[in-house]
Amino acid sequence: MGRKFWVGGNWKMNGDKKGIEEIVKFLAAGPLDPNVEVVVGIPAIYLESTKNILPSNVAAAAQNCYKVPKGAFTGEISPAMLNDIGINWVILGHSERRNVFGEKDDLISDKVVHALESGLNVVACIGEKLEEREGGKTEEVVFQQTKAIADKIKDWSKVVIAYEPVWAIGTGKTATPEQAQDVHKKLREWLSKNVSEQVAQDTRIVYGGSVTGANCNELAREADIDGFLVGGASLKPEFVQIINAKN
Ligand SMILES: O=C[C@H](O)COP(=O)(O)O
């Protein structure tokens, strides 16, 4: 059986009660391709209320969580809390967490381990910065970010890898289908060599970075692109078009 196409919307720190109702409306109106797994990343404060109004074919994800179940960690939320309100997904290691909030591979991999051990599905984000790409270091960077996680986990069945080149996030500069496919293919080869052929074949590797209704179809045609993690466009009705990119 092939890998199920996966499309996530990452709302980041956007949306309010009214705006979320609008998004829920266009998701409910769809129609959404039933062969696609759809997840939206919601600001923590709106997680439970939004989960309760999302259509049943769209899952809710947190955008972050910490590496332990509870304790003196002001401002953080834990996988245990997400479980408590019925949330099954979390996005970890997003480039904004890495670059704005200074999260390093070590912390991110600890978070991934704890989230998986707590039963959550994890979207693990990786990606190189512009200067790293220009310096010919793309592979080195994304392999290292993947290795940090691979070294600590055994079960990959609940992991989606999101390859998001930092230079393409929120910039309107999408990676070309060839550029994205090239990295996805190399990541799959890395998984095959360093984890197992089974994990390489089964793990969804999705692309993120200025995905829109206009560029999603050609990206979706690439053999190793198993879906998308969408920022800005996930707040707009064109997100439905992106979900249906394979059609
Ligand atoms: O998580 C999503 C990515 O950061 C992509 O954001 P974007 O689609 O606004 O470029």
From TrEMBL:
GO terms for molecular function: triose-phosphate isomerase activity. Keywords: Gluconeogenesis, Glycolysis, Isomerase. PROSITE patterns: TIM_1, TIM_2. It comes from the Eukaryota. Pathway: Carbohydrate degradation; glycolysis; D-glyceraldehyde 3-phosphate from glycerone phosphate: step 1/1; Carbohydrate biosynthesis; gluconeogenesis. Pfam families: TIM. Belongs to the triosephosphate isomerase family. Homodimer. This is Triosephosphate isomerase. It comes from Blattella germanica (German cockroach).
